[in-house]
Amino acid sequence: MSFAQDVKQELLQAALEPYETPAFLAALFAINGTFESNRLSFKSVSLGLIRRVMGLIKNHYEVPLEIRHADDEKLTQLKYHYLDIVTPDVLIGELGLMENDVYAERIDEVLLTRKEARVAYLKGAFLASGSMNSPTSSSYHLEITTHQASLAEDIQALFESLDLPAKVLNRRKSLHVVYIKESEKIADFLRTVGARNSLFTFEDERIKRDFYNSITRVMNIELANQNKTLLAADKHLKNIAILENIGDLEDLPAGLLEAIELRKKYPELSLVELSVKAETDLNKRISKSGLNHRFRQIEALAQAAMEDYHATHTRR
Hints:
Structural class: alpha+beta
Radius of gyration: 35 Å
Strand content: 15-25%
Order of helices and strands: HHEEHEEHEEHEEHEEHHHHH
Helix content: 55-70%
Strand order of the largest sheet: 1-2-4-3
Number of strands: 10
Shape: rod-shaped
Distance between the termini: 81 Å
CATH class of the largest domain: Alpha Beta
Low-confidence stretches: none
CATH architecture of the largest domain: Roll
CATH superfamily of the largest domain: Homing endonucleases
Largest sheet: 4 strands, antiparallel
Mean pLDDT: 90
Oligomer: single chain
């Protein structure tokens, strides 16, 4: 199973208090339900979810139920399960599914007076159409989709009321997505809806991933610094070679000769490391900036030597 399916399975098995049931069912029927010809229907590819909904309705509402099954017209391997209520007036009223003769366009605020009921609605919404990336994937993403723009706005507001900042994206005219991308808030969602096992898995993988990314960043920084050090050292050695071949090292100041001696002896070291070696090899302290200044002087002398060399050979 995918990580999202694991989360749904955990939510499906969680117990509900009587005051949470209407909000839970309202979310399911609002997102995956239809009301046509005085028949209220709920559909899902999950037979376990169908059975859970059927059990809740039987325990809390005295309405006759029917189950039917049908293959998806486009995906022949996908089978939908339907739960039909042929006398739905009581259930529609209890779940607040109808307003001004329009089905499931908004969430009935009466259902959400308690925080536990708001959480129950999110549980039902996620079970109906939620998805979540695995914490091992390249990005974090949680979403709930609905066909009603106003319902998506209400679900977004519901997330916000539980301190779970969410955004709404309209992918198509009839598909609206409420989503969260921040890993911390996705973890908060799992904590809020009581998916503790999934939360543990998510946090464990997130910690591993963040640790790996941190190590990778450190290694990249160290590699970049090492490359920078080697490039600088190579430049120093080239300038020194110019002075050795076409210049006159004997006329150089003692300070520059010391820098040349250190660089030739330790071609792979950074300026900071050369500064340390100056104390052990030369018995004197030369700061990083002092060494940098000396190598700039050496570079200027090497450029001047090259210019003189080219000028002399051009005249010939």
